[in-house]
Amino acid sequence: MGTFKNLNNLTNSSEIIELLKKTATPLENLEDLDPLMDYIGDAKYVLLGEASHGTHEYYTWRAKITQRLIQEKGFSFVGVEGDWPDCYRLNRFAKGYTNSGTDIYNVLNEFKRWPTWMWANWEIAAFIDWLKVYNINLPADKRIGFYGLDVYSFRESMNSIIQYLEKNDPQALAIAKIAMKCFEPYGKDEGQTYARASSYVPELCEKEILHMLTEIVKNVPNYNHDAENVLSTEQNAFIARNAEKYYRAMIKRGSASWNIRDEHMVSTIERLMKFHGKEAKIIVWEHNTHIGDARATDMASEGMVNVGQLLREQHSTDGVVAVGFGSYKGSVVACREWGDFMRKIKVPEAVEGSWEHTFHLASNGQNRLLLMNKIKNEKCLSPYIGHRAIGVVYNPEHERFGNYVPTILPKRYDAFIFLDETSALHPIHIQPEGNQIPETYPFGM
Predict the structure, then answer these.
(1) pLDDT, tens digit, for every residue of 42-60?
(2) Which of 1, 74, 117, 367 is the most buried if burial means most Cβ atoms within 10 Å?
(3) Nearest alpha-carbon partner for 45 in 149, 130, 131
(4) Are the C-beta atoms of 414 and 440 separated by less than 8 Å?
(5) 3-class secondary-structure state, position 328
(6) Residues 358-388: pLDDT tens digits?
(7) What are phi and psi of 48, to 5 degrees?
(8) SUPFAM superfamilies from the xrefs (predicted)?
(9) Cα(173)–Cα(159) distance, integer angstroms
């Protein structure tokens, strides 16, 4: 995405390095996060990024920040770049619901969609186990949740809808089955065949899905058995609706499918915030390309919006703090191509002139935390500078041609965590189902 702009072509590279030396603070332990905690203050939206989907330290530092936000600032739940049905099982397990799973490994083993390692990994296992213990002493309605915000679970969401309606709403069940039947001819690869067919018949199953959503939303006040399961059923209906729109959009070139996906994630955040009440606070875990403001990158010129931009536009008075992540070198879990098996891949030293390379020079190889309020008015930071972004597909030998997003860092994030050397995530090795549309498709982020 975008083109790399070399910092060496600018006259102010040494000025930026000196600025970072003065303003970025050491980051080695939990106490070093204190300036970030102070900066977050009473903000209701904290967005924690990552520069890849397979880096151990991004997950562990996000978990450390999240634990402090929950313990010290009363945050209500975590929303992640994952599927709703899979993450909802984690949510039920973390809250100690009956029949929610015997142990975290068995719950994570239900993650079937490639790339499974994004959430089925030992770093997530450790966090969810911590969350489960933390929740034990809280009232049931105050326990901290863990939810998927993404749009990629049409089949699983439809199955969940039908299972719920079988017990609670026979009339809506009949409508849901009609919608499911409409999709049957396109079910073998969940999305790609439907997308191709929609180029000939633009509407396809749109009316059936919309009818189902309308019926479920209308009847939600009558579903009063388990409030969170009611929320889940309604959310699955919105996923079905937006997934159908996404399928139709992804066959076309341009920004439409990306925007549908990020707008869906924002609308999911809105429903979760409403569900958790007026005092709710959310922590979001997503790739930098989603949580960093798109207007500070070349994404804007391509007509793309993202979660960070939309939340800033809609909720600035409630406080929105976006924290980006990046590293200079190390290793990552990724694939060489779509659907390939996961592997540990070496991440080379960042390209000279990139943000990561500049931080490396400024920090003498040490981890750093930078708060943007210290530097946001510095003129030397106004040009676009390359900022590394690694997706689920990664070929480091081609890195300089497609893995650097032109970025004005102090406008994209409110804070930035630089980790000089990082290591690969620790997946739970399970075989993904190859007939499902991948998470992050087709962008890889």
Answers:
(1) 999 999 999 999 999 999 9
(2) 117
(3) 149
(4) no
(5) strand
(6) 999 999 999 999 999 989 889 999 999 999 9
(7) -110, 120
(8) EreA/ChaN-like (SSF159501)
(9) 11
